[in-house]
Input
Amino acid sequence: MFCLTILIHEAGHFFTAKACGIRVDEFAIGMGPRLAHFRKGETEYSLRLLPIGGYCMMPGEDGQDEDGNVCTDPRAFCNKPKWQRFLVLVMGAAMNIVLGLILMGILLGQSSAFNSVMISKFSSHSALQSAGLQVGDSFTEVNGYRVRTDKDLSFALALANPDSVNIQVKRNGKLVTFQNVKLNTVTGSGGKKTTQLDFYVQPIAKTPLSLLQKSCADTISVVRQVWASLAGLVTGRFGLNDMTGPVGLVQVISESASAGLQQSFWAAVENIVYVIMIITVNLGIVNLLPIPALDGGKILFLLIEAVRRKPLNQKYAAMVESAFFALLLGFMAIVAVSDVMRITTGHGIGG
Output
């Protein structure tokens, strides 16, 4: 399934390159030793051992040919207009997000109605009702996190400290804020308190238009969650133990499937499709980060080239990319070790 998201990503690069007249020498899924391959036309298609990425090998990506000389091939990547190179680089991530949108639509299509963010009624002994919220209120913010969909609401409440939450709602066209709301909680087997939702939301009728709108809105919500999670890693809100890689995804998918099987086979399938949707959106967003060795880093170099109006020194650019690629592989190895520790001992490297 992880390879599926890689396939979609690399296909975005591949077909855009072909459309721009750029030669693609190799289309590879996976990294490391080659397991199988075949050639069709000018392109070799490869399946490689490690399912941690893939690539489209195009001549002139570093401005040089195979002999280390300045690449003069008119079909080389470096000799195409900047807007075409930009499209080739960005379309991998774009295709991942498009796949996420399609999968989201498939999942939502199984529902008879959709959730809104407007309160329709409260449970008995509702903490939110006691705090002053009313039927008809629509959530707009939770602890400063903008709420547009029920996924935004669930994400924000899951991250909030249940003992003190700031909630903003829209009531009769006006914004009303409630400070330091204490939510009802349940205590898990590990002693960790989690928020217990004590309200219901107004349903949205399912129509072809509402399905399309909801699919787009929920996909955007997942993109925002990825960005918020990445920001949390930078600020220290999340640690290494909150991350997972391909190894940990095996456990995540297994647990999701098992939870779904307690209801039905199709519930398990839906859970797995949801995990794939999360993976593909994550892959798309992470690849756009301005880090050398990722697509975002190459886009950054391209933007610098456009501002300078001359190519970067490819020798130094290649050195920077190689260094960051080594750091990226090292980081992936650490995450993999943490995943194994979490699966075997219950605790990753981060504790």
User: Anything to note?
Assistant: The mean pLDDT is 88. The longest strand covers residues 26-40. The radius of gyration is 24 Å. The chain is about 50% helix and 20% strand.
